[in-house]
Amino acid sequence: xxxxxxxxxxxxxxxxxxxxxxxxxxxxxxxxxxxxxxxxxxxxxxxxxxxxxxxxxxxxxxxxxxxxxxxxxxxxxxxxxxxxxxxxxxxxxxxxxxxxxxxxxxxxxxxxxxxxxxxxxxxxxxxxxxxxxxxxxxxxxxxxxxxxxxxxxxxxxxxxxxxxxxxxxxxxxxxxxxxxxxxxxxxxxxxxxxxxxxxxxxxxxxxxxxxxxxxxxxxxxxxxxxxxxxxxxxxxxxxxxxxxxxxxxxxxxxxxxxxxxxxxxxxxxxxxxxxxxxxxxxxxxxxxxxxxxxxxxxxxxxxxxxxxxxxxxxxxxxxxxxxxxxxxxxxxxxxxxxxxxxxxxxxxxxxxxxxxxxxxxxxxxxxxxxxxxxxxxxxxxxxxxxxxxxxxxxxxxxxxxxxxxxxxxxxxxxxxxxxxxxxxxxxxxxxxxxxxxxxxxxxxxxxxxxxxxxxxxxxxxxxxxxxxxxxxxxxxxxxxxxxxxxxxxxxxxxxxxxxxxxxxxxxxxxxxxxxxxxxxxxxxxxxxxxxxxxxxxxxxxxxxxxxxxxxxxxxxxxxxxxxxxxxxxxxxxxxxxxxxxxxxxxxxxxxxxxxxxxxxxxxxxxxxxxxxxxxxxxxxxxxxxxxxxxxxxxxxxxxxxxxxxxxxxxxxxxxxxxxxxxxxxxxxxxxxxxxxxxxxxxxxxxxxxxxxxxxxxxxxxxxxxxxxxxxxxxxxxxxxxxxxxxxxxxxxxxxxxxxxxxxxxxxxxxxxxxxxxxxxxxxxxxxxxxxxxxxxxxxxxxx
Length: 783
Hints:
Layout: H1 2-12, H2 14-22, E1 37-39, H3 42-50, E2 57-62, H4 67-82, E3 88-93, H5 99-104, E4 112-116, E5 121-123, E6 128-130, E7 134-135, H6 143-151, E8 159-162, H7 165-175, E9 180-185, H8 192-200, E10 206-211, H9 215-221, E11 228-232, E12 243-244, H10 251-261, H11 290-293, H12 303-308, H13 322-330, E13 336-341, H14 346-358, E14 367-372, H15 379-385, H16 387-391, E15 397-402, H17 406-411, E16 415-416, H18 423-432, E17 438-441, H19 446-451, E18 458-463, H20 469-478, E19 483-488, H21 492-497, E20 505-510, E21 527-530, H22 538-551, E22 572-573, H23 577-584, E23 589-594, H24 601-617, E24 623-628, H25 634-639, E25 649-654, E26 659-662, H26 669-680, E27 687-688, H27 716-720, H28 722-725, H29 732-782
Parallel strand pairs: 1-3, 2-3, 8-10, 9-10, 13-14, 17-19, 18-19, 22-24, 23-24
Antiparallel strand pairs: 2-4, 4-7, 5-6, 9-11, 11-12, 13-15, 15-16, 18-20, 20-21, 23-25, 25-26, 26-27
């Protein structure tokens, strides 16, 4: 019994098993002790990272014998040097002394790079707060991408950009007893270095920034060169009382300069990290005052904008209709997890969102959905599968798991989860119910495994320990088409036989089917293919096997067989700079949808439906979508050369590179989607913009009516004549149609000309041939 219990514990905790196997191995760190990457363990991590509210960290997790870990290390070190003094870099060797860190980070693979912002995140269920790691999913061979990832961890809420004397006076007043650090910058956006200084000295100094083109401020301060850093004592109220930094504009020198002018550092016991994200407005509901939660700017939010910002569930809703429930849940072969949630209660919606965030790592491995228990039509389903939710008015969510196999779902009672909705506990519960179709193999059993049903492809994992969750889930979802096995990484004979040099590794073994009419050979010869990715990421393995189904098995996969896409984030209306930054600040590309609110609700809803459809289709691409009202934000739209005649349209904006492209064709999902694909493939020309424009809180004042400015006897049509009645009066659709007609006419004319040329050439060739024939006959006659 003890052996069985130990085996079950090992199966449930593959990470702990991995750690146990590494205890006896001497650490061979790819990071030198005197380098820019700091070694961290359970104790130092809590002190330097967990309770550090003034620095962001990027941390690499690695183990011994991990070739990709060693390959990544030089790039990671180079990124650390580039961000020296801006973001801290560390590494964790997964083994003895780091089990708590690895468990808290939810580590499932190595190498893994996690970023830790300076703030903590509130757990709505446990009512506790802790640092939450953000996984780097870019190319680990690019130090530039790692450095950009590190910079994105820094908030800009602690830096105010000023545009004149009045703005400085207001900022100085708000700063109160704090000294002021003022950067004269040549850049249009706040640098990562200055953000890091503002974070490090938050509460000790107020930070502002002014572009060198604001000459009135520079003249008042007597500044003639940029960049420059000035410090104003707390009592200073005049612009000529500044102290100018005379050293180099490097992180260490700037920090030392500010340290001499900043207020005293707080007691470490009173300097805990904030329990909110300064990059977005998500302050803790209790325990923080309204002033502490707000940045040093204020804005007005319309009722329409507040309505658009209502939080929505991230799960796919399952219809309570019996036929659809049968199709989407009971007839599915795979494991299905459903949340029965009282979505009519805002607090329950928040809990649903937290559950979705907690279960994000299981996306694709298990089918997930949600039933709105607040819907009267869902009452029968709720009573049948989640009766506990009806019995307890205070309860928001009931998590129900329908077993693997279509024949089991209708007959068996589903499992009901009784614990706290956190990833570790809920993930363990779900994984216990995933059937294990993976066969452990030793060298002497490999041939027997290969001889079983030769035409069924074999998927073999070389791994130290039991198969990880992702692989077990993969086998459960593909076991009908593939046979799955795992071979220990210590089995040197099998590793040599299958030419495996590093682990983990996956080999696909398959028999090429005989051609039609040919008999199957008695001597079966397997072909082998290696899984191309270095890590066991479920979504990548899923897509890989789907390609094998198509190319090797010849399956015609329908839409329902495709791996589930990531749920699209809701598209919300942005009316302030903070809302735009929250929606797009960390995105690779921001898709700004300019949809008019002045043409009626029906037209607006149709246009927004197009945007939502495209957002759902591109959910797995590096886009974030946001609505902007072009009438309320005319200057913002004009900066992207969007006018009233262009509406509705979208502009794709790179917030980091200050480049954009505007869609100017028929506004439908197919056209907009193709445009976005062209942007990603670099087939669409983009335009440079000097500075990303800012949204005006509350919207701009309405434009004055043009009729008041035009004299009665002035008639534009008299002056423009045929131009007003012709092309200038056309709509964008009419212009596109006319252009298409002109292109078609040109193509037809070109085809006619080409045909005429071909006819002339053919006639010449015919005459030449005839002439040649006559000469030949004449010559023969002479002979």
